[in-house]
Each structure stands twice: as C-alpha cells, then as structure tokens.
Amino acid sequence: MHHTADSSLVHARSALFDLYGDHLRARGARAPVAALVQLLAPLGVHPPAVRTAVSRMVRQGWLEPVRIEGQPGYALTSRARRRLDDAAARIYRTAPDGTPVVTGSEGPGDWDRQWHLGILREVPNARRREQLASQLAFLGWAPLSDGAWVGLRNDAEVDQILGMEGIAADRFRAPVDDGAVEFARRVWRLDELGASYDAWLIEAKSLVDETGQESTDGNGDEQAFAVRSELVHEWRKFLFRDPGLPDELLPDDWAGTRAAEFFDFHAERLGPAAGRFVDNCLTLH
Asked: Where does the record place the Transcriptional repressor PaaX-like central Cas2-like domain (predicted)?
C-alpha cells in the first residue's frame, strides 16, 4: 500500500511539473488549486495526491502559495521558472526566446570540440553519488568512474551542484581526437539510448493512433490534452538520459532524430486543442 501511495505521489509531482512547464508557465505561471485538480483528473491523478504533491513542491522551493481572485492557488518560484525554461528549451529544441535551434539534434550548434572533465577529490558514498549522478545526467554529463565525469560544455550549473552537495572537484579540458564517436557511444551508452527511443516511438504511435487524428469538440480537447500530456511526460524522461550530443558524435541514422520528428509533429498538432482545455479549466475557476 505504501508503495502505491508513493508512486501516485511521484506521478502527481511529475504531472504538475509538466502542467506548469507546458501550459501554465505561459499563462502567468500560477493557477487556483481547484483548476490544478481539474487539470490533473484526465491524467488519472486524484485530488488528495494533487494536494500532497503541491505541499511537497512548496517545501522543496518549486511552488509558492498565492491568492488568485480570492481563491487559494500556487505560483512557480523563480528557481522553478528557470528550471522549466531550460527543460522546455530542450524538449522543444528552442532558444530561450522561443526561436527554433537549427541543429540536427538536441545538441547546441556551438560545441567547442573539447571534452570537459570533472575529477572528484574524494569519492562520496553510494547514496550521494546517486544523487549527484541524476543531477549531472540532467546536464548531459556521464560518469567515467565513481570519481570522474565527462561533459560537453563548461556548465556553471555543474559547479553549483558540486557546491550544494559539498563535493570538491578539479576541472580539466581535453581535446577531442579520432576516437570521439566510439568514446561517446560507450560513455553515454548510445546503443541503449537508441533502443529506448525506438521503443518510445512504437508506444507513442499506438497512443496517437488510439485517439484518432481529429479533435473538434470539448471532449476532444480533453482527450488531446491527455494524449499530449502523456507524450510530453514520457518524452521528458529523455532529458535525463540524452546528453544532446552534436551530430558529429551521433551514430548514422540516429533513432533520437526520428523520435524527435514524431514528437515535434504531434506535440504541435495537439497543442491548440490541449491549450483550449487548459484555458477552459482556468476560466471556470
């Protein structure tokens, strides 16, 4: 029972992040509690789980309580806005001002052709290593060993993470040589990642096929919102796994490119109907 409650809370929390990042960020970054409950219902999240997840996100500094026309509601903190802007830029491969990034992959076009290395001065215990691993993976860094990491850019957020974790590291750069493609494939486990993209694509196609292509009435809007939310939710997981390598480091016929084209097309196609559903819920409350 405890496990079920835990997993429903994790689901509620990630659904809230998706909702704020995808829809509410552009609509004042705030919403009444009643609207949050109504918006998460089509995603199978029950009201108690919404309220518990919201409380937890307030404690963690992602949301803050506000009054909206006399009703209780929650707004994103500035820290949460920064994180969601960064996530949105990577999900939709756009620059912070919303313009598309013109590269063949999620990687930025301005790679300096250097490996960026971080060597920890002492190896932390397994629990702290795991915590560090998930935070660094989000920034595209990969472990070379328990105490060494490699990334593609000199990211200031890496220093912030190490500082917050109280972990000292020496930072180096190394020029890229002829073995770069094979090195990247091994270190970032690109064979596994490519297989995950292929598996995602099969599931995403069946999800989209089930819903049909047209969505005209209000019920269709809710369905478009639910399907698009499911697509975004699963796609967002790749942010923690895909380092956004430049094209020159990726295998030929990279599965991530095919998956990204499918995601882009359907996220955009379902966007207007999903947005209408969100607007309706916000108007009602």
From this structure: 110-167
